[in-house]
Amino acid sequence: MREQREGILSSCVKLNLNSPDAVEIAGLSGFSAVWICMEHGAASWNDISHLVRAAKIHDVDVIVRVSKGSYSDYVKAFECDAAAIMVPHVTSAKEAAAVVEMCRFQPVGMRPLDGGNADGAYCVASQKDYLANGNQEKFIALQIESLEGLEAVEEIAAVPGYDVLTFGPGDFTHRIGKLQGDPAPEVEAARERVEAATKKFGKIGFGVGVQGTPQEIKDKGYGIVNLSSDVQALESAWGAALDKFHQGSVRAGYYRMDAGKTAQKS
Question: How far apart are alpha carbons 27 and 57 in whole angstroms?
């Protein structure tokens, strides 16, 4: 999350397939972060540990969308040394404050100690460094995905101790009885309200489904933008190959090695 402190718009890709190889490909491609989902996905905590290790090879941050639940659902991602957690379906300032209390050490919160995991360098880190890392180098993101959350978004954004606010357009659209792709001006109005609250209270915006130039996106308060997913990329590439096949153009499968290609992080 160094890029956020330097004012750089960070690129992210969502990974549904829980593959360390996909994490490495994301890093080699130049992405700054990968977004792993435990809310809807099948990843175990052991999977998360291996995904974080793969990300560290290429200096990629791991954002884990946790299952909404208890203290253990939240802090285990940090103990695997993920850079950030994303808590879904936050609906009140009280909920936001509870997440901060569970996930931050004193004096910000009341998270219990255990330096024997990856985030404490397996007891190699000093307690002072372990605590500082947990409070200063780990990010907490909260998702607004409902009318209840939207009505409280200004109060949620005002809660201290967390870093990132994001609007979930998919669930919000569903909850107001629309399908993705339907004309829904109320969805864009909701996004704009979340953007305004994010900027007003100095949070970092995490963009899902946002459009514009990088500068336009930054001007709206976003610091991180999700650009794609592994399943989308596979479906698109495989679908294109099949389309060419059905159109009578066949090129046998092979690996294309682009000499001299280097990844550049935005």
Answer: 8
* Neighbour-count burial of 128, counting CB atoms closer than 10 A to its CB (0-12 exposed, 13-18 middle, 19+ buried): exposed
Token pair for residue 18?
């829980």
User: Taking the model in full, what pTM does it have?
Assistant: 0.92
Categorise residue 127: left if φ over 0, alpha if ψ from -120 to 50, beta otherwise: alpha
Could you tell me which residues come within 8 angstroms of residue 67 by beta carbon, excluding any fewer than 6 positions away?
A: 38, 39, 73
Tell me the CA distances in angstroms from 176 to 121, 167, 189, 195, one per residue in order.
Answer: 45, 14, 13, 19
Backbone angles phi, psi at 21, to 5 degrees: -60, -40
* CA separation for the pair 192, 125 (Å, rounded): 42
Q: Hey, where are the domains in the chain? A: 2-246
One-letter identity of residue 88: P
**CATH fold of 2-246:** TIM Barrel (3.20.20)
CA separation for the pair 54, 136 (Å, rounded): 23
Compute how many other C-beta atoms are within 10 angstroms of the C-beta atom of residue 40.
10
Residue 208: C-alpha distances to residues 45, 49, 133, 178 (Å): 25, 25, 27, 18
Least confident of 16-30, 61-75, 155-169, 178-192: 178-192
8 Å CB contact between 158 and 93: yes
Q: How many CB atoms lie within 10 A of CB 5?
A: 8
